[in-house]
């Protein structure tokens, strides 16, 4: 197991809304299992719509939230057990985050470089200013920025795209092996979005950094990833090597997503099942996608879909590939 | 037809005048879908507000005008602007703003909000008649009538947006303005809403103006596209011409930066960032980022020009309309 950089092992998370008595439970994640091989750097995209649980998953992997059940391991060590597993310091040197809004990462009260020095001192344990400056300058250089220009500037003096570049540089300071990026380009304009994504490809190649790229945008996910996980209402409904999954999806939701991406220069063809109207809730044990699924059969509304495995390391949570039989 | 004449609209903030839309002119035709594209801060949402005459401080119309020419029942032409356009909200022109949650009152049921909004029209004798027309219209659009009894938060984002579209089209307005109507929705729901808008437009033969940062959305829906950059209209043409032969360097680079599923080729973004609209640079606002910038670009603001029939561009590369050739 130690050759896995990241392993998410049957992770679930339940939120209680309201008081414990009389409150409702929300199953944000249900039995999510994913892993990333540590032998070579890879990019895993986690794709899903808002409310699918992808941000909850990111927060759990980033140690900002405890799972209700299941274990997250980095280098084979439990992330949420600092005593027997991975210590805080080890964790932060191995795994670094990038968030959606760079203006949250760098508040406007202090110059941006202050946050970079904080990371160098607190996360890397660097003691002298000279050494910190060197490390920060190198990190900025990796993302095409210059400390002499960035230094002293406040966040509001940057555009969103530039500032997100600085947050990538901040994440690089401890020389992590894994970066978890939660919707890192969703607030960035199209013409600069691709530059950030290109940076991930370059850092994977030149620095051997792996990425978990969490997004709702299938086009950029296609552009960067080696592997892709599609999430729907708290579950990973399909996973596999990118090209295999997108060339011939196993799960109807993946298929529907692909057919719905608006491509510039290519008209949508056919029609899609728009059965996403609020219909009666299916039994908890049923497939959550069934109410919207154009291929649903009776069994989908009654039983939990099986996890089917297919050649090439592909998986799907669906009755359709099994010809509607329980395997 | 709506004529936008030399519109300049700014936000007057403590930091100064943000010139969000700067001397934009264009005509929006009857029975067309016009897409307005551009990145955040390009002025596309502000322009929509000006067309709708929804101009509240700190936004101010500094100069220029918007006028709508319509035919009355007797066949005469009538021209509306300013206050007249505001009086014709819902009936002549309606607006689907960004973020459906922000238009619906969270503590009132959808049905009563619907009736309040369209009930101001005098076309209905009483609330019962109005109610039955509303339920009939929802059924026509394949929407469950139950939504009227729900509070906004009880509906999914996609359903809320469909209700807003129903509301905006209920009185059969001649012009519908939609500002990022599908942003923040997942792509499957987005396709459903775009398809719904397209069907309604075909049925009503009215004018739909859609603002979106997503070039793919425009391609699915629009007949003509306007590209804005830093408050300026830089290009306007039929969608086919924008795809096949974009003229402005910004349009070219923007299209070149879009990743496509099924194509692993490396893409490049545009270096730099749009200028501050507090103090925009003289000359062309794209010049600082433009790989084809020349001395003239810093000196003077390029005027819009009809380079080919129906294909407008504002760029010094296209000094004079050419015939033959290009």
Which CATH C-level class of the largest domain in chain A is it? Alpha Beta
Q: What CATH architecture label of the largest domain in chain A applies?
A: 3-Layer(aba) Sandwich
CATH superfamily of the largest domain in chain A: P-loop containing nucleotide triphosphate hydrolases
Overall domain count of chain B: 2
Estimate the helix proportion of chain B, in percent.
Answer: 25-40%
Cα separation of the termini of chain A = 27 Å
Overall mean confidence score, pLDDT of chain B: 90
In short:
With about 325 residues, chain A is an alpha/beta fold. Helices cover about 35% and strands about 25% of the residues of chain A. In chain A, strand 9 and strand 10 (about 235-240) form a beta hairpin.
Task: Describe the protein.
The complex is a heterodimer of chains A (327) and B (326). Chain A is an alpha/beta fold. Chain A has two domains: 4-247, P-loop containing nucleotide triphosphate hydrolases (Rossmann fold), CATH 3.40.50.300; 272-327, no CATH class. Chain A is built from twelve helices and twelve strands. In chain A, the strands form two sheets. Chain A has an eight-stranded mixed sheet with strand order 6-7-8-3-9-10-12-11, sandwiched between helices. Chain A has a four-stranded antiparallel sheet with strand order 2-1-4-5, with helices on one face. In chain A, a hairpin with a 6-residue loop joins strand 1 (4-17) and strand 2. The longest helix of chain A is centred in the middle third of the chain and has 18 residues, at 190-207. Chain A is globular. Chain B has helices at residues 44-51, 82-87, 100-103, 110-119, 127-140, 157-169, 187-204, 215-221, 239-244, 249-256, 295-299; strands spanning 2-13, 16-28, 33-37, 59-71, 77-81, 93-96, 175-179, 207-212, 224-229, 232-238, 305-308, 311-313. Chain B is globular. The interface between A and B is large, with 42 and 49 residues.
């Amino acid at each position: 197991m130690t050759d896995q950089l990241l392993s998410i092992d049957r992770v679930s998370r339940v939120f209680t809304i309201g008081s414990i008595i009389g409150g409702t439970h929300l199953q944000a994640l249900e039995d999510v299992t994913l892993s990333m091989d540590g032998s070579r750097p890879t990019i895993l995209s986690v794709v899903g719509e808002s409310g699918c649980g992808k941000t909850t998953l990111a927060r759990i992997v980033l140690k900002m939230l405890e799972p209700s059940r299941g274990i997250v391991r980095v280098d084979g060590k439990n992330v949420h057990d600092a005593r027997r597993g991975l210590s805080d310091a080890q964790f932060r040197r191995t795994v670094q985050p990038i968030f959606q809004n760079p203006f949250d990462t760098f508040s406007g009260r202090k110059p941006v470089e202050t946050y970079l020095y904080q990371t160098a001192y607190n996360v890397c344990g660097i003691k002298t200013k000279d050494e910190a400056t060197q490390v920060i300058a190198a990190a900025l250089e990796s993302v095409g920025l210059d400390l002499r220009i960035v230094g002293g500037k406040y966040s509001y003096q940057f555009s969103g795209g530039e500032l997100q570049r600085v947050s990538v540089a901040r994440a690089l300071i401890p020389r992590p092996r894994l970066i978890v990026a939660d919707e890192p380009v969703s607030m960035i304009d199209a013409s600069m979005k691709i530059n950030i994504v290109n940076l991930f490809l370059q850092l994977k190649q030149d620095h051997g950094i792996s990425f978990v790229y969490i997004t709702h945008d299938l086009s950029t996910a296609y552009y960067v990833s080696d592997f892709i996980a599609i999430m729907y209402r708290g579950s990973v409904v399909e996973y596999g090597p990118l090209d295999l999954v997108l060339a011939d999806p196993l799960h109807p939701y993946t298929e529907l997503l692909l057919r719905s991406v608006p491509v510039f220069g290519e008209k949508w063809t056919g029609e899609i099942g728009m059965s996403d109207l609020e219909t009666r809730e299916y039994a908890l044990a049923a497939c959550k996608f069934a109410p919207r699924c154009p291929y649903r059969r009776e069994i989908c509304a009654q039983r939990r879909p099986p996890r089917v495995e297919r050649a090439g390391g592909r998986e799907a949570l669906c009755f359709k590939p099994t010809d509607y039989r329980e395997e | 037809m709506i004529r936008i004449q030399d519109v300049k609209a700014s936000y007057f903030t403590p930091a100064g005048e943000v010139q969000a839309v700067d001397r934009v002119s264009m005509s929006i035709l009857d029975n067309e879908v016009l897409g307005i594209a551009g990145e955040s801060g390009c002025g596309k949402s502000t322009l929509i507000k000006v067309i709708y005459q929804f101009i509240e401080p700190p936004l101010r119309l500094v100069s220029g005008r918007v006028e709508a020419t319509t035919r009355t029942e007797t066949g005469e032409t009538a021209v509306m602007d300013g206050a007249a356009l505001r009086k014709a909200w819902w009936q002549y022109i309606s607006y689907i703003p960004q973020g459906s949650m922000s238009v619906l009152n969270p503590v009132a049921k959808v049905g009563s909000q619907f009736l309040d909004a369209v009930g101001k029209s005098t076309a209905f004798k009483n609330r019962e008649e109005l109610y039955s027309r509303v339920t009939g219209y929802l059924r026509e659009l394949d929407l469950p009538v139950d939504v009227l009894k729900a509070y906004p938060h009880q509906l999914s984002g996609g359903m809320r947006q469909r209700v807003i579209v129903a509301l905006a089209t209920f009185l059969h307005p001649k012009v519908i303005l939609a500002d990022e109507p599908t942003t923040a929705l997942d792509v499957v729901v987005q396709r459903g809403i775009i398809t719904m808008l397209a069907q309604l437009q075909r049925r009503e033969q009215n004018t739909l103006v859609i603002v979106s940062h997503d070039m793919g959305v425009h391609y699915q829906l629009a007949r003509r596209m306007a590209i804005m950059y830093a408050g300026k209209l830089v290009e306007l043409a039929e969608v086919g011409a924008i795809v096949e032969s974009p003229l402005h360097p910004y349009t070219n680079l923007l299209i070149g930066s879009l990743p496509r599923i099924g194509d692993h080729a490396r893409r490049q973004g545009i270096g730099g960032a749009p200028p501050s609209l507090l103090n925009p640079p003289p000359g062309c606002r794209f010049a600082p980022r433009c790989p084809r910038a020349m001395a003239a670009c810093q000196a003077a603001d390029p005027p819009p020009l009809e380079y080919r029939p129906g294909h407008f561009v504002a760029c010094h590369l296209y000094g004079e309309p050419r015939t033959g050739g290009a």
